[in-house]
Amino acid sequence: AGIEARGTAPLKPYLAKIAAANDRAKLQTLFATVGYASPVDVGIIPDLADPTQYTAFAGQGTLGMARDYYLLEGEKYDKFRAAYRAYVEQVLTLAGIADAAKKADTIVAFETAMAKVHWSPEQNRNIMALYKPMDRAGMAKLAPEFDWAGMMQTAGLGSLPKMIMGNDTALTALGKMFAEVPVSTWQDWMTFH
After folding, report:
1. Sign of the CA dihedral 54, 59, 63, 69?
2. According to the per-residue pLDDT averaged within each range, which of 44-48, 113-117, 155-159 is highest?
3. Of 1, 32, 77, 143, which one's alpha carbon is 20 to 30 angstroms from that of 22?
C-alpha cells in the first residue's frame, strides 16, 4: 500500500537527472554514475590475468534482453521481441512518460542496433580476447567519442593509469553510436531503464 501511495515520486530525482543530461558531456557523467543505464559499463572486477588483484574494466553495457534475443530469427524470437516492446511501452506508461508507444519503438530499435555490435556470449567467454589493458591514450584511440578520463573520475577510478577495455570492437562501435544517436534517444533509453 505504501509503494502504491508513493506512485512515481521516488523516480522523480532520477528522471530529473536524465532530463538535465541534455548534452553528450552530461550523458557521460550519468553513464558512469551507479544506477543509470550506459552503453559501456565502467567498474572494478578481479583482474583477468591475476584474479588475486582487482582492476578497472570497461565493456559493453546495458541491454534489456540477452543480445541474441534481438538478433535470432524465427517466430519464437519474434514473440520475445513483441513482448519486450510491449513491456517497454508499459513501463514508460506507468512512469507517466509522454508518447510511450513511439518511444518504445525507438528504444527497441536502438537496443537492436546496439545488440548488433555487442559481442556474442561465445566471444564473451574468451578471457584472452577480453583482456586488453590500455592507458588513457589507448582508450582515446579505441573509442575517442567517450570521455574516458571523465567517466573514470565519476566512477571513482580517476587515479588509475590504465583500464582493461573488454569487448574492444563493441566499444569502438558504441562510441560511434554515441556520437551519432540523438541525445534525446539516449535520454529516452536511460529513462526506460
Report:
1. negative
2. 113-117
3. 143
> What's 151's DSSP letter?
H
Residue with C-alpha cell 562510441?
175
Q: Residues, the chain, total?
A: 193
Three-state helix/strand/coil letters over 31-71: HCCCCCCCCEEEEEEECCCCCCCEEEEEEECCCCCCHHHHH
CA distances from 101 to 2, 80, 84 (A): 29, 17, 12
Query: What pTM value is reported for the model?
Result: 0.93
Amino acid at 143: A
Q: What is the pLDDT of residues 143-183, one digit of tens each?
A: 999 999 999 999 999 999 999 999 999 999 999 999 999 99
Q: How many CB atoms lie within 10 A of CB 92?
A: 21
pLDDT for residue 179? 97
Rounded to whole angstroms, the Cα distance separating 93 from 22 reads 22
Exposed, middle or buried: residue 78 (CB in 10 Å: 0-12, 13-18, 19+)? Answer: exposed
**Is 163:56 a contact under the CB 8 Å cutoff?**
yes
Nearest to 115 by CA among 65, 59, 42: 65
pLDDT tens string 56-85 = 999 999 899 999 999 999 999 999 999 999
- The identity of residue 145, as a single letter, is E
Q: Quick check: 142 and 168 in contact, CB under 8 A?
A: yes
